[in-house]
Design a protein that fits this description.
Largest sheet: none
Helix content: 55-70%
Number of strands: 0
Strand content: under 5%
Length: about 280
């Protein structure tokens, strides 16, 4: 069944000359494949479907929660593209959860009549602006929370690509609390191949620019090593600059000063520029 997914994709590319007939036939085939309960079939079916129909995100409505549950069971090479599709779906149909804020109750005037009037007006406004009403095309953000919770289980895996995928999901669709969850697992870049470490460090650089507090306690992880390649050295230097604060400025400046004598003249110049 997994092989048939790629057969359908090839059929659409090199099959019948009539595009409309081919598309209709492929859609019918994908409806069967997307209903498959096996994660070995579902993940490649989702990827192949969106390669053919990149804008048909509504097809995920029916299977959305099943895809979320099976994220942990997908093969590692399919997790990143599937999560990228789920991010597009979430940004299109799901409302991002907002942090709970305590509301200040309006002062009551004339034995509480004014407060009652305000409550009636606010309830009417809520009905008008209820994005999660049954008549609305926007899905309840409980689905988004479900996706974010299911993705949390992926953080226990040591695959760099999977950690990058979860970080992307939390960055675009999650809250600050979700970003805190992914910060420590991303530090496993030190045990990854240099190519994967580079991708993970790029994610850390973006997160540290948005919220430096996520990585300030782990600033020593980003000190440059003698075995680091040029691209990784540059990203680590950028991360150190993002993490600099009044409390750790002395330590970071001392570390960056040691890079001025580095054998690479380009990196030494970057270090001087960072100090400036």
């Amino acid at each position: 069944r997994k092989t048939s997914v790629f057969a359908v994709l090839k059929y659409s590319q090199f099959g019948h000359r009539d595009v409309e007939t081919t598309s209709e036939a492929c859609v019918e085939m994908f409806k069967i494949l997307l209903a498959d309960k096996s994660p070995l079939v579902l993940a490649p079916a989702i990827i192949a479907f969106f390669q053919m129909f990149p804008d048909e995100h509504q097809m995920l409505h029916v299977i959305f929660r099943r895809v979320c549950r099976q994220l942990v069971y997908f093969e590692s090479q399919y997790v990143l593209p599937v999560i990228q599709i789920l991010i597009q779906y979430s940004l299109k149909f799901l409302k991002k959860p907002e942090p709970e804020v305590e509301e200040v109750k309006p002062e009551t005037v004339e034995n509480g009549k004014q407060g009652e009037d305000d409550e009636e007006e606010s309830s009417e406004e809520d009905k008008k602006t209820d994005f999660f009403a049954k008549t609305s095309s926007v899905v309840d953000n409980k689905d988004l929370r479900f996706l974010l919770d299911c993705a949390h289980d992926l953080l226990y895996q040591n695959e760099g690509s999977i950690l990058v995928a979860v970080a992307m999901l939390y960055y675009y669709c999650g809250s600050e609390d979700h970003l805190r969850r992914v910060a420590k697992p991303l530090l496993s870049f030190k045990g990854q191949p240099q190519e994967i470490s580079y991708c993970m460090l790029k994610v850390i650089e973006s997160l540290s620019r948005k919220d430096p507090e996520l990585f300030r306690l782990y600033m020593k992880f980003f000190f440059v090593c003698a075995t680091d390649i040029a691209s990784i050295r540059s990203i680590k230097l950028s991360i150190l600059v993002n993490l600099t604060s009044k409390t750790n400025a002395t330590t970071i400046i001392k570390e960056i000063k040691s890079y001025i004598r580095y054998p690479s003249h380009e990196f030494a110049a970057e270090s001087i520029k960072a100090l400036g």
